[in-house]
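pls ignore typos typing on phone
oxa(dethia)-CoA + seq
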Amino acid sequence: MTRARITGTGSAVPDRVLSNYDLEKLVDTTDEWITTRTGIKERRIAAEGEYTSTFATQAAQRALEMAGVSPDELDLIILATITTDFPFPATACIVQSNLGALKAAAFDVSAACSGFVYGLSLADNAIRSGSARKVLVIGAEVLSRIIDWTDRNTCLLFGDGAGAVVLEADGGERGILSTHLHSDGSYWELLYQPGCGNRNPSVQKTLDERKIFLMMQGNEVFKLAVRAMEDAALEALEKNGFTPADIDIFIPHQANRRIIDAIGKRLGLDGDRVYVNLDRFGNTSAASIPLALDEANRAGRIKENDIVLFDAFGGGLTWGSALLRW
Ligand code: UT7
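k done
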């Protein structure tokens, strides 16, 4: 049986750090409120001249280097993002050009914060069906450019960065065991960007009405996230005949410490098995799981044959999980 196994991980973030204390100077908030309500202490913000493709390319190069795969061996490049460099072409094509991966097919996936798990599922299917052998999946965002820096409800939550994995076909027991994807479009207005699409095409009007910025009904999203992420985690475990006790490391989407703690508690996972880095990066949307994965991997937190669970939730609404034997 062919499985898709992660053979390399990489990540990249901007150098500029924006702390909660910096935000106190921008909007009516405090470090204390942000820390207790979200768990975030600081986030990274892209500089002028840095784009989603910049961090996606750097993360991909690091993942390829770890895997020992050269760009021209790639069959497929899947980039999960909601902050593309341009409306078109796909930012994946820009990354493909930067890497020199000219044999690959390249496209973007738009599933907001669940984008990486969606991309991973597509890669898994491509590898298991035999249509690809080496696939690059990236989650990358420059959310700071669609944030309303006068809105205290959203501006403190998000950050910029990228994470990437190289997947290769493998005949053994290790690799992706299953992926599980879900959406409920009836909630699309809870978290979206009103401008920059063809419903609000006028750039000037969109700017005047502040429609270029991300909008979120945080409270509603919070409640739905906890339930959906718990369901997706249990679905992955049940499908493989596992229980939460079998999980060696749980890497959830990093949106809010209280969401992560609530799911950890519902699954009965102790703190050691739950990987959290949102204190330093905030919510990086599609980048959050691969960014956390790369940190955990490089820190030696994941051992061969460990059971790893990814769990995502985001705008759409979209959610999903992936269970892997490392
Ligand atoms: O990645 C995709 C998924 N996204 C998420 O999962 C995000 C989910 N949502 C959340 O993480 C949380 O809902 C937020 C962090 C966005 C907000 O936390 P909350 O505990 O839901 O706060 P709230 O909006 O209910 O506001 C509580 C209070 C309000 O004051 P009153 O009405 O109780 O007097 C707000 O006005 O906190 C006030 N508040 C603030 N105070 C200081 C709201 N924002 C701030 C702020 N600083 N930045």
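The domain at 3-172 is CATH 3.40.47.10 (Peroxisomal Thiolase; Chain A, domain 1). The chain has a mean pLDDT of 97. more later
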